[in-house]
Design brief:
about 325 residues, Rossmann fold, 2 domains, six-stranded parallel sheet, six-stranded mixed sheet, 11 helices, 14 strands, about 20% strand, binds alpha-L-arabinofuranose
């Protein structure tokens, strides 16, 4: 009798755990978002696995997607924040598959390690759209489309504008703040920048280290660069604006003038970077557009309507050099 009671209590606990897992979408902020199964009330259900909130750029991307899909009568958005961890993204995708969402949108934190979970999505016939960062997979059919920028081109443009600014005949000692290790945005921006410098050997990267796309780490790494090589640094190239802003603080605390003593080049185009440029503290901003919500919404609609969507949906972007360009652009910046 006692044994039977014990077994039925364990069974009850087990069943409750299963129903909680199946019914809720894990949100790594510690909260859970209620799940409601695929294609409810004619809405297209999209599960979006976001990397985290490491930068102003990423916050703007999340806002754009929540505003476009979350506020639309055509979509139901299931959002999951992975707090920078691939394992959390894999867990979120597994949950989206269990909930039978119509489409999975994935902003992958790193390039590798996706095969197994994407095969599960494909087996479940759920198309996967990559957002803003790319992945490396042998079987390209594991995702349907990539929406985002050309990171190699961004790195090349950063190098090109830097050479114009300083003068090809002069040259510079450059320190590089890389993004998250293993991220396509870091790998490609590094490659593109190196490509852009290759015909100008006077431009040398003397130090290069990851600042993980955050302000805090960008500052920390720049402090270390300054400590070991302060007098020798002419330029800091940061793979995103947040790290550049951290570096600007480090340069000021070290007693030098960012934008003058040490030139600053970065990628993204968030308002804070434009404000720094207006104050003359940064020199070159290569834009990378995070407002991908409308493109994602259109791609998902097209896909569900049976239309073929482009393999790479690119975004339009500019480069801003100097104070005047920043002053002119700042009032209309949307992120
Ligand atoms: O993948 C895009 C990059 O990721 C942005 O440049 C950066 O700010 C973000 O964290």
């Amino acid at each position: 009798m006692f044994k039977l009671k014990k077994v039925s209590i364990s069974l009850l606990v087990f069943l409750m755990a299963i129903s909680i897992l199946a019914g809720c979408n894990s949100n790594t902020n510690g909260k859970t978002e209620k799940a409601s199964g695929g294609n409810k009330g004619g809405k297209i259900v999209v599960g979006f696995s976001q990397i985290g909130a490491e930068s102003g750029w990423r916050t703007a991307e999340t806002k754009s997607i929540k505003e476009t899909l979350g506020n639309s009568p055509d979509f139901e958005l299931k959002f999951s924040d992975a707090q920078q961890k691939q394992e959390n993204q894999i867990k979120a995708i597994r949950n989206f598959i269990a909930q039978k969402v119509d489409v999975i949108a994935l902003a992958p934190v790193v390039e590798t390690g996706w095969e197994s979970i994407l095969k599960k999505a494909r087996d479940a016939k759920i198309p996967v759209i990559l957002l803003d960062r790319g992945i490396k997979v042998k079987d390209e059919s594991l995702y349907t489309s990539f929406i985002g920028s050309d990171f190699i081109l961004e790195g090349e443009n950063a190098a090109k504008e830097l050479i114009n600014l300083i003068g090809a005949d002069k040259g510079a000692n450059i320190v590089e703040l890389q993004g998250t290790v293993g991220a396509s945005a870091a790998n490609d921006r590094k490659t593109g920048f190196a490509n852009g410098l290759k015909d100008n050997p006077n431009f040398k990267i003397i130090k290069s280290q990851s600042g993980d796309f955050t302000r805090v780490k960008g500052k920390e790494v720049m402090e270390a660069f300054l400590k070991s090589d302060g007098k020798n640094i002419d330029v800091v190239y940061a793979h995103n604006d947040d790290m550049a802003i951290g570096a600007i603080q480090a340069i000021e605390e070290y007693g030098l003038k960012p934008g003058e003593d040490i030139k600053v080049v970065s990628i993204d185009g968030v308002k804070d970077a434009f404000e720094a440029a207006v104050q003359g503290k940064t020199n070159i901003i290569v834009e990378c557009n995070p407002l991908l919500g409308p493109q994602l919404a259109q791609a998902v609609k097209d896909l569900k309507a049976g239309k073929e969507i482009p393999r790479w949906i690119k975004t339009e972007e500019s480069v801003f050099v100097g104070k005047e360009a920043a002053e002119e652009a700042l009032p209309s910046r949307k992120y």
